[in-house]
Amino acid sequence: MDDSSTKITETTNSFEIAKQQLQIVADAMDLNPGVHEILKRPQRELTVNFPVKMDDGSIQEFTGYRVHHNLARGPAKGGIRFHPETEIDEVRALALWMTIKCAVVNIPFGGAKGGVACDPQKLSSGELERLTRRYTSEISILLGPDKDIPAPDVGTNGQIMAWLMDTYSQQVGHTVPAVVTGKPLAIGGSEGRVEATGRGVVTVAREALLASGGQLPDSRIVVQGFGNVGGAAAALFFRSGAKVIAVSDVNGALFNPKGIDILALQAYQRETKTLIGFPGAEPIPTEDFLTTPCDLLIPAALQNQITAANAPHIKARFVIEGANGPTTPPADIILRENGVTVVPDVLANAGGVTVSYFEWVQSLQSFFWSENEVNSKLESIMVKAFQQVQAAAKRHSCDLRTAAYIVGVSRVADAIQARGIYP
Ligand code: GLU
């Protein structure tokens, strides 16, 4: 991890990208060099190699990670990703982004992330459960409701969080709902958590449009990814009267210039497990998808989707980052030069961890809120964060990513400085 010379260059290494972003903000806000050094590296990282008994009787070895980036503002918080390409630098970047994200929305957590290199689509339900339980057991030295609270991310869901909660609870000998968020309602999950990230994306999209004299109804929207984030966001956009003209998932992309009936598409996807063949839109090549002319482009899949190669051809007014790390730093520069406003991941997709915070509070208190309470508290946090980031962008004459980092990094720096360096 030699990071003495951070230049803005195109790379697909997410941790290099995160450090480039940190460098940009350090220069913009004159960050204390000692604090910058602290934030360049995760506080602690655990790599675990562990066996899982497969259905055919064989034993397969898996590698997983849990990284705590910075704990100055509170216990470690962040999702767990199950994906074939998950590796340590990706998890480090995602953990760093969680530190910034929690600080941008001002919730009392430090940043963490975890992951297992595996393809959950290729595992049976039994294999997935055994993998989840063994991984949980391997990282349990880090976990706890006041230490480290995981949540879903790419490739994981409420069921996996339920297995995690049960495994941890079996180990400590009593039920501990607050050790994980994004769990099912039946075991202390929160109303509104499943769609919270998508709801937050729509809220900041609306605020970004309003700030430029626009509005959601009749805006043309392109959503990449139709999972927990993209699917929920598309449905809320559709309900708000916006026109979702194109959507995609790993299998392909759909286009309808008059707007796609997202509720019908969700029903089709539930039934067929794919978007392909939906009668209410035309298939389009995935290569052309991100360059579809639109008002709002919502990358809500994986990292490194908007790069120096395709950024010059993006024809959106706004990019609202539902995914973590969808835009590379050189692409950011190109978009800015072309007048495309990027609302960064650490702000745009912070609705998920915000409702995770609400879920954690409810689990600790064993006192539960209605969906309306959750949604209205989420709305006020997202709007406030958007306004604070926008004010920082004006103050520093910078783009929204740099502004969001200035807001987030300042809060983390204040916490580090208030606590002091031990011993
Ligand atoms: N995985 C989500 C994210 O990247 C949610 C994390 C959480 O709720 O802890 O923000």
Description:
The relative contact order is 0.14. Helix 1 packs parallel to helix 3 and helix 6 packs across helix 12. The mean pLDDT is 97. It is built from 14 helices and 12 strands. It has 423 residues and is α/β, with parallel strands linked by helices. It folds into 2 domains: 42-187, Leucine Dehydrogenase, chain A, domain 1 (Rossmann fold), CATH 3.40.50; 196-348, NAD(P)-binding Rossmann-like Domain (Rossmann fold, 3-Layer(aba) Sandwich). It is globular and about 55 Å long. The chain has helices spanning 14-29, 33-40, 88-104, 125-139, 158-172, 196-211, 228-239, 262-272, 286-289, 329-337, 345-348, 351-365, 371-396, 400-419; strands at 44-53, 59-70, 76-83, 110-117, 148-152, 220-224, 243-249, 252-255, 282-284, 296-299, 318-320, 341-343. The longest helix has 26 residues, at 371-396. The strands form 2 sheets. A 7-stranded mixed β-sheet has the order 9-8-7-6-10-11-12. It has a 5-stranded mixed β-sheet with strand order 1-2-4-3-5, sandwiched between helices. The structure holds glutamic acid.
List the helices and strands and how they pair.
Elements: H1 14-29, H2 33-40, E1 44-53, E2 59-70, E3 76-83, H3 88-104, E4 110-117, H4 125-139, E5 148-152, H5 158-172, H6 196-211, E6 220-224, H7 228-239, E7 243-249, E8 252-255, H8 262-272, E9 282-284, H9 286-289, E10 296-299, E11 318-320, H10 329-337, E12 341-343, H11 345-348, H12 351-365, H13 371-396, H14 400-419
Parallel strand pairs: 3-4, 3-5, 6-7, 6-10, 10-11, 11-12
Antiparallel strand pairs: 1-2, 2-4, 7-8, 8-9
Helix pairs in contact: 1-2, 1-3, 1-14, 3-14, 4-5, 6-7, 6-12, 6-13, 12-13, 13-14
The structure holds glutamic acid.
